[in-house]
Amino acid sequence: MRVGQAGLGNWGKNLARNFSELADLAWICDSADDRREELLARYPRARFTTDVDEMLADSSLDAIVIATPVPTHYELAKRVLEAGKHVFVEKPPAMTAGEIDELVELAERRSLVLMPGHLLLYHPGIVRLKELVDEGQLGEVLCVYGNRQNLGVIRPYENALWSLGVHDLSVILHLLDEDPVEAIALGRDFLQPGVEDVVFCYLRFPSGKIAHMHLSWLDPHKMRKMTVVGTEKMVVFDDMELERKITVYEKAPWRASDRYGEWQTRTGDISSPRIASDEPLKLECEHFLALVRGEGDRRQVAADGARVVRALEMLTDSLRGS
Ligand SMILES: NC(=O)c1ccc[n+]([C@@H]2O[C@H](COP(=O)([O-])OP(=O)(O)OC[C@H]3O[C@@H](n4cnc5c(N)ncnc54)[C@H](O)[C@@H]3O)[C@@H](O)[C@H]2O)c1
Questions:
Q1: Quick check: 200 and 146 in contact, CB under 8 A?
Q2: Are 252 and 267 in contact (CB under 8 A)?
Q3: What is the pLDDT of residue 322?
Q4: Closest CA to 176 of 200, 199, 206, 148
C-alpha cells in the first residue's frame, strides 16, 4: 500500500513513523520547505514536496494522511477525496457540520475511506470500557464524565474544547452511541482573546443519559480520566495510570424490597482487568490500512467523525452564546 502524508509537525511525525513501518510511505508533504532535508534524512525512500497537488497527482498512491493544523483539514480532505484517494484526517476532520456532511457524502459517493483521527477509540482501555458497557455489565449507563486537564499545552488558535474536547467527545459518543439533543458549554478566554482555556460542557441524550467534560490547560492536575456511572457498577478509565487503566467498582444505588422507597447503597469488589499495552496510534493506523484494503466498516468511521463534529458545533454555538 502506497501512502502519502501532508503535515509532519509535532504529531504528524508519530503518524509518519507508524505508516513508514506499516506501509510504503512514498510521499511526504510539508509546507515548511526548510524541513525538507531533515524529513528526507528520516524517510530517504520518500519524495518530498511542499505542494499537496504534486503528491495527489501520483496515481500510484492509494491513501493520504493529513496531520496539518485543524483549519486546513476540510479543504485538504476534500481535495484528496476528489483526487480519488482514501484519506485519514487528524481530528477534527472539519469545523462545521456542513463541511463534514459534505466530506462524508463525497467519500460515500466515491467509495473511499474517510477516517478521522479519533485516537482514543483504539486505546485498549477504551475498547475494554466499551465492551463493559455493551455487555451490560454496568447495568444501565446513567452518566459519563471526562476530565482532561493539565497546566499547558497552551494552544494559540484552537480552544480547549476543540483541542482537548474532541478526544473525550469521541469517547462519550462512542460509549453511548447517541447524538446529544442538548449541549451547553461555558468557558473563559483568560490568556488569549477568543481562545477559551477552560471549558465545562454538559450534554443530554435522547435516552435521558447525561455527560460532562472538564477541559482545561490551566489546571494543577494532569488528568486524563473518564468515569462511567451505571445502575449496577461504575468504571473509571485513567490514562495516567501505568497498569490500572480501568477500575471497575461494584458500587451502586440499591433499594431493599422490604423497605420500599428507601434508597441505600451497595459496595462490593474493586477490580482492574488487564489491559494490553499496545500503542493506540499503531492500532489506529492499522485500522485505517485495513479499511483501505476493504476490510471492516468504512462507513462507521466516517459517521463517527460526523457525529463528533456535529456535537462540537452545538457546544461551540453554546459557548459563543448563539
Ligand atoms: N490524535 C491526537 O492525539 C493528536 C495529538 C496532537 C495533535 N493532533 C492533531 O494533529 C494535527 C497536527 O498537529 P501538530 O501538533 O502536529 O501541529 P504542528 O503545527 O506541529 O504541525 C503541522 C504541520 O503541518 C504543516 N502544514 C501546515 N499547513 C500545511 C499544508 N497546507 N500542507 C502541508 N503541510 C502543512 C506545518 O508546516 C507543520 O509542519 C492537528 O490537527 C491536531 O489536532 C492529534
A1: no
A2: no
A3: 63
A4: 206
69 lines ligand 1 (CB under 6 A): yes
Q: Is 91 in the pocket of ligand 1 (CB under 6 A)?
A: yes
Q: Which of 31, 150, 283 to mutate to test the pocket of ligand 1 (most atoms within 8 A of CB)?
A: 31
Taking the C-alpha atoms of residue 140 and residue 209, their distance in angstroms, rounded to an integer, is 9
Question: Please, which pLDDT band fits residue 255 given cuts at 50, 70 and 90?
Answer: confident
**Nearest one of 101, 98, 81 to 302, comparing CA atoms:** 101
Atom in ligand 1 nearest the alpha carbon of residue 117: 1
Asked whether 205 and 180 are in contact (CB, 8 A), the reply is yes
pLDDT, tens digit (0-9, with 9 covering 90-100), for 185-215: 999 999 999 999 999 999 999 999 999 999 9
Q: Is 65 in the pocket of ligand 1 (CB under 6 A)?
A: no
Dihedral of the alpha carbons of 249, 266, 146, 291, in degrees to the nearest 10: 50
Residue owning the nearest CA to atom 19 of ligand 1: 9
163 pLDDT more than 90:
yes
| CB distance 23 to 287 below 8 Å | no
Report which ligand 1 atom has the smallest distance to the Cα of 52. 32
Which strand (E) or helix (H) includes residue 98? helix 97-109
The Cβ of residue 130 has, within 10 Å, a number of other Cβ atoms equal to: 16
